[in-house]
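Let's sit down with a protein and look at its sequence and fold side by side. Go ahead whenever you are ready, and we will take it from there.
>
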Amino acid sequence: MLKYALLLSMLIQLAATIYAISLIKRTRFNVSWILISSAFVLMAVRRLFDFSSLFWDSKLFPSDEINGWVGVLISVLMLVGVIFIREIFNLQYRIEKIRKDNERRILSAIIKAEDKARQNFARELHDGMGPVLSSIKMSLSAINPESLNSLNQKIIKNAYNATDDSIATLKEISNNLSPHILVNYGLKTAIEDFAEKLFSSSNITPELQLDVDEKLLSDDLKNSSYRIVTELMNNSLKHAEPSAVCLKMMVSGNLFVIQYSDDGSGINNPELLQKGKLKGMGFNNIISRAKSLNGTFSINNQDQGFSIDFYFPLQ
């Protein structure tokens, strides 16, 4: 039984040695794996010494001292190999860091392209359709209603009102695509204006604490922050039915911090939201914008209410 066990052990050791050596090329000849593979080779040789002693009175190498020194060398090789193996982990860390940086750059490029397309479309819409509608309004206002019968007067009035509504809608669409107030008056004013318009028809009075020096923020950070905050407010109003909404913005050290909360119905799957896998309600877009600026976020979802904090490094 001992002979068969040693034979099986020797074969297993030999297979492990061959497999370890075959991986050297895949590890790009990393010194740690070469040392560990060398230790496997010596372990296979040592197992051969043990196996040979069962069949011959004298071993291949008669001195037990040689076998002992082989064991010592195996231990040294394994120790040094394990110490150097940290290079493999360092390489994996560098690869992961490069992957995340590339992912962030791609997200940033996509969002910048999207924002630029929004701006171009808003400008074309405003500059193209705006004058046309204004011209129609002027033409309608130039008509003398006294020269028309009552039916035509009503038609002209309705057309005039519809033109007014179209101009207002056009301005609203254009502003949503590319908010001019953000560019002209800054982040704080843009958020206050948006919140005032959004919650004007509700019983909610948002609590806004926007204590931040906007000179410290890049244009990309201001634009993404505005999009994130407006999306959160829209979500609260449409889905959470809150009675209170709170937004805080501040600079803490080298971080720009956004803290948002409401006392609404909350979210059923905060774990999916944390991982960026929650579908709907624009949260994936929010998370993508945060990642594109190398930002992080933390979610506090309870039975009643929802809160999320964002942390963006200042450039």
